[in-house]
Design a protein that fits this description.
By secondary structure, the protein is mainly alpha-helical. The chain has a single domain, classed as Actin-related protein 2/3 complex subunit 3 (Arp2/3 complex 21 kDa subunit ARPC3). The protein contains 5 helices and no strands. The radius of gyration is 16 Å and the shape is globular.
């Protein structure tokens, strides 16, 4: 389809090209956008708040479609994390959700079929499913780090305040 497959900084198995690990002493929370380890998932998390305020989103290329899917996935994750959840419980819930069956572009259950082309064949569909699965797992893991970054053992109220907001009026 027209879903980009940009390289990811991940340890999760999948079809994405793997970027180098973060430099020593650098955390996911303070990665420099100019770093070679900075990827589209970092950009998705960084721009999440600003982008959730949009009702429309101008798509300029395949990477924008990855960004849109990532924002929808983060919104879905935030809806699954409850204020009383521990970090470990949130990790389990989000990783289980990331591994659940999900719709691909072209499937009737996919929320943004108007913006995405379906895969051309079975091989392309399998690659896309693997990439999106890899992306969902990695994004869920990075989100948990941000949710619990303050060290209180409770998820950030700031992040959870976005759990009810619908990006472009859609959800996964």
């Amino acid at each position: 389809g027209n879903f980009g497959l940009p390289a990811l900084r991940t340890k999760t198995r999948g079809p994405a090209y793997t970027l180098p690990a973060l430099p020593a002493g650098t955390s996911d929370l303070d990665i420099d956008p100019d770093s070679e380890a900075y990827d589209i998932l970092d950009e998705t998390l960084t721009l999440f708040r600003a982008n959730t305020l949009f009702r429309n989103f101008e798509i300029k290329g395949p990477a924008d479609r990855v960004l849109i899917y990532g924002i929808l996935w983060i919104s879905e994750c935030l809806g699954r994390v409850k204020p009383a959840m521990s970090m470990r419980d949130a990790e389990k819930a989000l990783q289980a959700a990331a591994l659940d069956h999900f719709a691909l572009p072209g499937d009737p259950a996919f929320p943004l079929n108007a913006l995405y082309q379906p895969p051309k064949d079975r091989n392309e569909a399998d690659t896309l499913r693997g990439y999106i699965g890899q992306m969902r797992q990695e994004l869920a893991a990075r989100l948990v780090v941000r949710l619990y970054a303050d060290g209180t053992g409770k998820p950030s109220k700031w992040w959870l305040s976005f759990s009810k907001r619908r990006f472009m009026g859609k959800s996964l």
